[in-house]
Amino acid sequence: xxxxxxxxxxxxxxxxxxxxxxxxxxxxxxxxxxxxxxxxxxxxxxxxxxxxxxxxxxxxxxxxxxxxxxxxxxxxxxxxxxxxxxxxxxxxxxxxxxxxxxxxxxxxxxxxxxxxxxxxxxxxxxxxxxxxxxxxxxxxxxxxxxxxxxxxxxxxxxxxxxxxxxxxxxxxxxxxxxxxxxxxxxxxxxxxxxxxxxxxxxxxxxxxxxxxxxxxxxxxxxxxxxxxxxxxxxxxxxxxxxxxxxxxxxxxxxxxxxxxxxxxxxxxxxxxxxxxxxxxxxxxxxxxxxxxxxxxxxxxxxxxxxxxxxxxxxxxxxxxxxxxxxxxxxxxxxxxxxxxxxxxxxxxxxxxxxxxxxxxxxxxxxxxxxxxxxxxxxxxxxxxxxxxxxxxxxxxxxxxxxxxxxxxxxxxxxxxxxxxxxxxxxxxxxxxxxxxxxxx
Length: 440
Hints:
The chain is of the alpha+beta class and about 450 residues long. About 20% of the residues lie in helices and about 20% in strands. The chain starts with a helix and ends with a helix.
């Protein structure tokens, strides 16, 4: 009896195997994607040959992943909806798993695909499935359609190297997965992703074709090389590529501003810098400035007043005065390309340049004397660099005074007046706007 039952079951199984369409499910893999459609050159009037999208459109059509957009058009610039994206992702997942791309009819039409996508962890639910989808959201959904082995990394794409993808973006992992697999390579030479731009059918064709056919994937490398941005001639910051857009929105620039020149007799780098207030209240400070005229300065008088934290003027608690005449003895000529900078040290000042000419601040930590060459030590590169024509406008005399006032409440110093006495016997007095114009 048992022998006859076993024979009957085997016969039944054989009969089922021979029925049309009754085949065993295929093994998961990219080999389940086959070209079943024939593409004819020129079949879409808006698909020109030799363009970035041409071969991708052909491949997407041949694999049956995309059809025309109506008439003889592919509708390259048409935008996808969330429902269409989920439908594509569900079909990709089902075909890859060996289950084909047949889905039952539903109401609305996309409901079976949504149910499949949610059940298989491809996407979550949305409130408006007819909304246009962004590149970021598209990649997040499509990335879930394939397992890791189907999107194996072939490119070295360093973390934080994609310029417009912040490290905390919810689409960070999905986008980097596509870049590393060669499915995406960016919208420009910098590898920009454009996450919030709505994705077009032409872009979708490129992504889908590369997903199912690894031979179409791009090979490239992206490193997280720091980018130097500038806010002024003296302010710079080194940021990672994916931080650039944030800094640009805050007023930083990719290019260093050109040196500013004005027809003022002197140029003053900043208001006086307090270097130290010692234990008995003695105020030490410096002024960074340069002769900007064709004359040679004999004496330069800087009239400086100290202020407390709420901008009340202060007096020296020992000598009783407030405004001090802080002068420099020359001769001080204008620095030019012919100036022997090595031999200009004299009296109570010396020629100094910013240790980093693009530094973010100006204090003793950012200044160094001219060295042989003449050269200066660039703290950003760690190299000795020549003082070239571009740096000359930023070479300053840094004059230093000690214990000019004794008042430990001093927080600010302001120059109220400058008097310049020249070797030819003439004199210039700078106050108000004429003095303000010297700060640049």
